[in-house]
Protein: Bacterial Ig domain-containing protein
Organism: Alicyclobacillus fastidiosus
Amino acid sequence: MKRIKVIICALLICISAAPAWHVPRAYAQTQTVSATVTFRVVSAADYQGLKGARVIVVDSSGRVITSGLTNSNGVWSVPLTVNSDPRFDGLGVVTAICVANGYNENVVFEVPVRQGTVQPITLYPVKPKLRNEASASLGQLHHLDVIEIVNKYASQMGLERQPGLSGESGYAPWGPNLKRAE
């Protein structure tokens, strides 16, 4: 019996001293991003702001985190705190669903949560005898964020860059070939 107690104590000590990589991801601490995001909703008919359009903000886990109505200029600003997206450095993303009377819905995926974000949303008027249904668009990710994600995953895959263009400085696109072992 004493031997079993010693074994159990030894196992408990080993488990408690396990390295951090052994901790399941669900228990790992998640970084968050906080920023005020501005939504600018316009009509596709005349590109004027739409007053009273509702914007529903959904986080990456599919949970509605907030909702609000646009002002007389078609603008609604909201402070958001969301989990940092591991694909980007210091950036969170949400999905925005926008609805307004007389207009078809628009779902905007990958809306960046970073200070200074202004996300335009264009709604198309409902028209008789046409296919009136929701549309989808992509959020206003900054071109440097797009370059960052391409660089991150192309490097991770071990891809080679294409030859740079004559007169073009600073950036050469990635190609499909894997780097050769040296």
User: Anything to note?
Assistant: The two ends are 59 Å apart (CA to CA). The helical segments are 2-16, 143-157. Confidence is low (pLDDT under 50) at residues 18-23.
